[in-house]
Amino acid sequence: MSADASSSGLPTDDFYDVEDFVWDNEGEGLPKRDRCTELLDLVKNGNHAFRENRMEEAIKCYTKASNIQPSNPVILSNRCTAYVRTSEFLKQRTPTDSEYRPLNGLDPTIHAELALKDATKLVDLRSNSVKSYILKANALILLEKYDLAREVILSGLQVDPLSNALQVSLQKLEKATASLTQRCRGKPERSDDFDCTLCLKLLFEPVTTACGHSFCRSCLFRAMDCSNKCPLCRTVLFINPRTCSISVTLNNIIQRNFPEDYAERKADHESLTNFGYDLLPLFVMDVVLPCQKVLLNIFEPRYRLMVRRIMEGNRRMGMVDYHDWSFSFPVILDSTARFPAEFGCEVEITECDPLPDGRFYLEVEGRRRFRIINCWDQDGYRVASVEWVQDILPADRLKEQVDLQEMANNAAKYAQFWIRRAKQAAWQDRRRLAELFHAEAMMPTTNDPELFSFWLAGLSNRRPPERLELLFIRDTKERISRGLIYMRDAEQGCQVQ
Fold first, then answer.
1. pLDDT category, 335, cuts 50, 70, 90?
2. Of the residues 29, 90, 280, 361, which has the maximum number of CB atoms within 10 A of its CB?
3. What's the mean pLDDT in 150-165?
4. DSSP three-state, residue 197
């Protein structure tokens, strides 16, 4: 554990360091040769641990030494300093640090109380030492007993009226208490009444149910993914995420009275909805190609949560399939029995229809390819760090581009002819006709051969392994060639093995 300088405003130079031990056997009744070496080693090891910011180890050494000489002022002073340093470090930790990097052991209040106990003994033993009063005042400030801390500093000034450290401490303490009084004037004290009973944090975008209970909007709908009852009183709730509004009055009260806590909660919430340029939430189901539209029925609680967060952000996610086939390119393994394929496609939600039972009907459209670099679980669904994949440009760009453009134009003419023939063959199959009309409307311009190649390859319904291999290919000509082969095979009623 490491600790920064004190935030109490009291001196932290010589008064915040530990003292080296000098053996004094008076009044202890212990033979020097029996315990001297052990006591010196304990204090020496404690001082070494303290100066390396290993406070827990230092406190253990000082406590063992105190059991040998309970009233030794050096041992009491060193242990009190370690208690104060630890308490200040714990008080300075942010709520986010405490949540994601929890520490085991005593809380800052108990450390401050132990420091005050040692400092009280130290003042009795060293009533002429300025450091004794500084340590006791520090412990009282950590316990928020500012009036008693002021009395201790005044007592120290009676002993040494010329002490610059005590005079500076008194001035800083008075400024700190005056600032605290001014800051707290007219504002309600933070209590559990403003906390969400589900996440135990400050309410963010609060929603008040018909039964009178308030929750964070995201917390409530996450709970309703599993049950449509109030998490507290079990009253059946009829709430639609699309039409449910936040409690404006309660939200304004929280923003006005707790601006810093609200800003921290907002930042936490935005980190879950705005994933960043190279981070994508993953919907693991099937392989989607760029320029392809897919209809989805979202019913699993984890994906319902993910869709709500996506709709508050950029409306984009990654779609990948489970990797169940053997390809030549490597895959990133996961801890579960099944793991996502390495390549996928970013999709944008173009239509979102939330249903009363919490499900979502989505229409998504493929945008661009990606390769998964790393993948982890977040609240039940996958999130991946990705790199975007594009076709490799040829070395002789001018000549190759002319050839590629000509190839794309010829393929577009054949695709239009193929679609007309397919419409004639499927004149009694309404579903197939709708698919062909939709594909024809989605046809991109040949000015972007890479995007056109994906549209061409997706005209004929291919198996997931073949679509995944299309994502892996980085040669536009090869993809156009495969698309033409797929269409000829589909026209002949056969399939390439």
1. very low
2. 280
3. 85
4. coil
